[in-house]
Amino acid sequence: MSPKTLEIPEATSRKSDLVIVYHRQPYEEVEADDGTIRLRENSSPNGIVPTLRSFFGEVEHGAWIAWKQAEDAANPGFDRRIEIDDDFGCYTVSRLPLTPEQVRGFYHVTSKEAFWPILHSFRERYNYDPVDWPNFQEVNRAFAEAAASEAAEGAVVWVHDYNLWLVPGYLRKLRPDVKISFFHHTPFPSADLFNVLPWRREIVESLLACDIVGFHIPRYASNFVQVAHSLFDVSRTGRVTVDEALINEGTALTERSMVTGLIHDGHEVTIAATPVGVDVAYIDTCAHSIETRNQMAAIRDELGEAQLVLSVGRTDYTKGGVQQLESYERLLESRPDLRGKVRLMHVSVSANRNMEAYAEIQSEIEQVAGRINGRFGRFDWQPVVLISRAVPFDELIAYYRAADVAWITPIADGMNLVCKEFVASRVEGDGVLVLSEFAGAAVELDAAIPTNPFSHRNMDMAIAQALEMNIEERTTRMSRLRAKIDACDIRFWGDAQRRLFEGAANGDNGTPKCTLAHRRKGDIGAGARDGARPELAVVDGR
Ligand code: GDG
Is pLDDT of 7 > 60? Predict the structure, then answer.
């Protein structure tokens, strides 16, 4: 797709009915040959950003608040507000100029070194010392001020993720009239862990200023309720039985009931659990394309008789890459018959190369992969193919289609979209998914082989079981998985959010009815997305 280029209008002073607050801008910026900066669609069309933008199709005018690095925040050298009119809708993008020190303090230190380990239950990695709390407050306040100035009377302001935890509290004081919804993309831990954070009361008080606090699954919502109860005098307004679509009997993250509302200081907050899905229609179109089929055929040709095990994720200690490679090493050690008959493609893409914790994991992954290849490899067979750069999405779909097994084994993961993308790509209905019990998706995907990354024996048995599964069981399981992800795709999630915004959920909002009977395709948050990818393009004057 070659992006078309449009004139960029002056940013309007029009107020917005929907304001999305997300730390990243909704597109990529590239420098053209003539030195101008052009905005273009994210080269990776997957992920949540296109879905969020699609909501702008449902309002007259929207706004998106993000940060953009500037050496001098007072004279950033770019337009603070720009106007976009694309296939999704009309919206202002408000870019907060943050200095490199502010970005480091707010994002790389406070969010990634202090919050991220606690959210994912890695207490030993939690680093309190370098946190500059006033910097975190200042950046969050700036996001809140920007949102306050874009929002129309009674607008919905939708804030995303833990690095913006303080935004609702500041915003509520500035704009008591707006409806504030906050969505967590990560897990939310129990009070024992969360309360390790010394800023816990300030964070939770801010979240209690929202109208809606959303999570992927009931367990995280319940943990939040427990944390709020431990820190404040809150009362609970409702409890529902979790829909069976979110119950995977006996697995680690399954929860049978959840509280759906809290009252704090006379203000009522709706608590919701709505698992994010993937764009099944889009993946289906990609998976059926001639290019994908050709790529898949070439991959299978290259593999010969060997089975392909595929693992995809960001390079992050939460994703369990090292533990997975060690399990593979044990498999090849204990099962000489598998040598030469299986290949692991381990895609581990680094998003934060300049952070020590991620550089360490990358280097450990490289060491274990190198050791496995050194110990077991032959001239005609390399047991592990390690890929550390991003694979283009259409190519990724070809690998999803070509693989025999997807091996997704995070130690902790809010949802995990990779496993859902794999299932959506399996248009022929074959293939095995091995999925960690500690990914939020595990409560939905009960036809996957569950695995426990804290147990060597369990990890080793699960991958062996997947490699040996007969065609009948594979197709039965895959058909159940596909029904699930199709019924609860990204449009379903969009619909659930919209119903929450409209306050129409009336008590059953905590448990989305993820069943085929409730499927309502195409009528929700889909904006311009029906099958085709919209083209964006705008030129930033500088
Ligand atoms: C956070 C939460 C939650 C990966 N490698 C390549 C590539 N990817 C894409 C995948 C997928 C996305 O990145 C990863 O999504 P995940 O959900 O697995 O994980 P996080 O990035 O950690 O996301 C997570 C999510 O938010 C949504 O709420 O599920 O738990 O941690 O879409 O396809 N894409 C391309 N090449 C790659 O090599 N093109």
Answer: no
CB 365 within 8 Å of CB 315: yes
Residue with the smallest CA separation from ligand 1 atom 4 is 313
393 lines ligand 1 (CB under 6 A): yes
Q: What is the pLDDT of residue 36?
A: 78
Residue nearest to atom 34 of ligand 1 (CA): 393
Closest ligand 1 atom number to CA of residue 419 = 18
CA of 421 to the centre of ligand 1 (A): 10
**Angstrom distance (rounded) from CA 192 to CA 10:** 50
Please write the tens of the pLDDT for every residue from 316-346: 999 999 999 999 999 999 999 999 999 999 9
Neighbour-count burial of 430, counting CB atoms closer than 10 A to its CB (0-12 exposed, 13-18 middle, 19+ buried): middle
> Burial code of 247-276, b = ≥16 C-beta within 10 A, e = fewer?
bbeebebbbeebbbbbebeeeebbbbbbbb
Question: What sign for the dihedral angle of Cα 444, 448, 450, 453?
Answer: negative
* Residue 509 banded pLDDT, cuts 50, 70, 90: very low
Q: Whose CA is nearest to atom 18 of ligand 1?
A: 416
Tokens of 107: 């994002």
Residue 218: its H or E element: helix 218-231
pLDDT tens digits, one per residue of 82-135: 999 888 889 999 999 999 999 999 999 999 999 999 999 999 999 989 999 999
Superfamily of domain 280-487: Glycogen Phosphorylase B; (3.40.50.2000)
Rounded to the nearest angstrom, the distance between the alpha carbon of 413 and the centre of ligand 1 is 10
Residue 399 and residue 391 in contact, taking contact as beta carbons nearer than 8 Å: yes
CB 444 within 8 A of CB 450: no
- The domains of the chain are located at 280-487
Residue 86, ligand 1, Cβ within 6 A: no
Q: How far apart are CA 139 and CA 97, in angstroms?
A: 10
Question: What is the position in ligand 1's atom list of the atom closest to the CA of 43?
Answer: 39
DSSP bridge partners of 488? none
Ligand 1 pocket, residue 47 CB under 6 Å = yes
Amino acid 518: pLDDT: 37
Burial classification of residue 241, based on how many CB atoms lie within 10 Å of its CB (0-12 exposed, 13-18 middle, 19 or more buried):
exposed
Contact at 8 Å (CB) between 384 and 346? Answer: yes
Index of the ligand 1 atom closest to the CA of residue 187 = 30
Confirm if 236 and 226 have CB atoms less than 8 A apart: no
Q: What is the pTM of this model?
A: 0.92
